[in-house]
Design goal:
By secondary structure, the protein is mostly helical. The chain contains 21 helices and 6 strands. It is 73% helix and 3% strand.
Length: 478
């Protein structure tokens, strides 16, 4: 089955077209029928994301290229698109209770998640600097709005404003870098840049620095992490769960594709940048989280640290490194969704509690929830045989094979430091006096926790499918 228009193959972009048209249809339903359709629109949005994923898997195998090379569908894109769709769909499921509250009945929330996801899919398949920027801005503009979706909440409005202002700054830096790269290479396509950038001329390196600065902002890597703790704490918790999962997948995807396919001739130049960013992110994520009392702020610093670990694999510049990044981000999404399903379940008398001290004695009032959270925290710390250990194993092995021994050693040391604040939460749950029973956990939170938690705990039993899929995806870039 083939679709073509004006000489362009539309088959590779069929999932994106379906998602865009579906989002517009749901927008019309919400606009004509009012806020009473919030839950209906959210449910249909989840179905639309599932349909998009099915269409993505239905596309012919191999590498598909359209729009003059600016849109690429390969094994790398398929792997990460499915992951981004899972993150977005799970977020909408986690937001069910949030959207059922009278003050939060905004059907626009689900539409914005869909449009942001559309931007992610474009970003993951970007084959040139123009499609990269279009995908990035489509993803980001919707995120700015959902961050401030609680209009009567000062913290939410502040989070949205901070994210918008700093996001605009990072977009400007990225565009400046893209214009420098275009000026010195004469092309915007990654393949053309790779052919032109065989030597590290000053102009190309300057452009690369600004391009990577813009991308570092999107993955919350140091020194462009400053928005993350405030936005994570201020935004509604389902929005924070969204920020911590799907957009990270897309941003890390374009980070990987841009460096490995557009600049393979100047690996040593961007490798130095990534090594610095990786070390700084791991260190800050490990040490800054120790003094946190709010669980969402702690998860913000945790995500900064985890992006540092993921970039360890990318810094190696090899197939094994790219495979390590893909395995890492897949396991990270599962751990994040499990964490936030538990954080959303933390309610007493209908009121959400976000302080770490509120987890006191959870093992006695809700032993199963405490067990799952302890396992997820151990996994985030990288304790074997949980999934998080294997995620770090793959990126550290790739770094060692690329002779980045110092980077691997620093990664292991910061993992040990980071384990302290994860274990301190386990201590609070198992050894402190209970504060009282939590409200019963809703079925949608249980469902997400069951899938993500079981994957995290039992990944060691059957890691083959994920590793082989990541390996095929990584090889498609080289």
């Amino acid at each position: 089955m083939s679709f073509s228009s004006a000489g362009y193959q539309l088959q590779p972009v069929l999932p994106e077209l379906v998602l865009a048209v579906g989002a517009m249809v749901l927008l019309m339903i919400g606009a004509y029928r009012g806020q009473g359709t919030t839950r209906l629109v959210a449910a249909l949005a989840v179905c639309l994301l599932v349909l998009t994923g099915v269409l993505e898997l239905w596309l012919p195998a191999g590498k598909l290229i359209t729009f003059g090379g600016s849109f690429i569908v390969d094994d790398f894109a398929r792997f990460l698109k499915i992951l981004a769709l899972i993150g977005s769909g799970a977020t909408l499921i986690l937001a069910t209770e949030f959207l059922s509250q009278p003050s939060n009945r905004n059907f626009e929330f689900a539409i914005l998640v869909l449009l942001s996801t559309l931007g992610m899919l474009v970003l993951i398949s970007a084959g040139d600097l123009i499609s990269l920027y279009l995908g990035l801005e489509l993803m980001s503009l919707a995120l700015y709005v959902v961050a401030a979706s609680q209009r009567d909440n000062a913290k939410s409005s502040e989070a949205g404003l901070k994210y918008f202002v700093l996001g605009a700054l990072s977009s400007g830096m990225l565009l400046y870098g893209a214009s420098l790269i275009y000026g010195f290479t004469g092309t915007v396509s990654f393949a053309g840049i790779a052919a032109a950038a065989t030597t590290g001329s000053v102009g190309i390196v300057f452009g690369l620095v600004f391009l990577l600065a813009g991308l570092c902002f999107k993955v919350s890597a140091v020194p462009f992490h400053m928005w993350t703790p405030d936005v994570y704490e201020g935004a509604p918790t389902p929005v924070t769960a969204f920020f911590a999962s799907a957009p990270k997948v897309a941003a890390l995807a374009v980070f990987t594709r841009a460096t490995l396919t557009a600049f393979p001739g100047i690996v040593t130049q961007w490798q130095q940048i990534l090594v610095f960013v990786s070390i700084a992110s791991m260190a800050l994520g490990s040490f800054a989280a120790i003094g946190q009392t709010n669980i969402k702020r702690l998860m913000a610093y945790s995500s900064i640290g985890h992006m540092g670990f993921a970039l360890v694999g990318l810094a190696s510049g090899t197939v094994e490194g790219a495979q390590g990044v893909l395995v890492y981000i897949a396991i990270y999404v599962a751990m994040t969704l499990a964490s936030f399903s538990i954080i959303l379940a933390m309610k007493r008398d209908g009121h959400a509690v976000e302080q770490i001290s509120d987890f006191a004695g959870l093992s006695r009032t809700n032993p199963l929830l405490a067990f799952f959270f302890a396992m997820v925290l151990f996994s985030l710390a990288g304790v074997p045989p949980l999934a998080g250990f294997f995620a770090k194993w793959y990126v550290f092995v790739a770094a060692i094979k690329a002779n980045l021994f110092t980077l691997a050693v620093i990664g292991v040391v910061t993992s040990v430091v980071g384990a302290f604040y994860y274990l301190s939460i386990v201590k609070v749950m198992y050894f402190d006096q209970p504060l009282g029973k939590l409200d019963p956990m809703r079925i949608e939170l249980r469902t997400v926790l069951a899938f993500a938690g079981i994957f995290t705990v039992f990944y060691w039993a059957y890691p083959g499918p994920l590793v082989s899929a990541a390996s095929a995806a990584a090889k498609s870039l080289f």
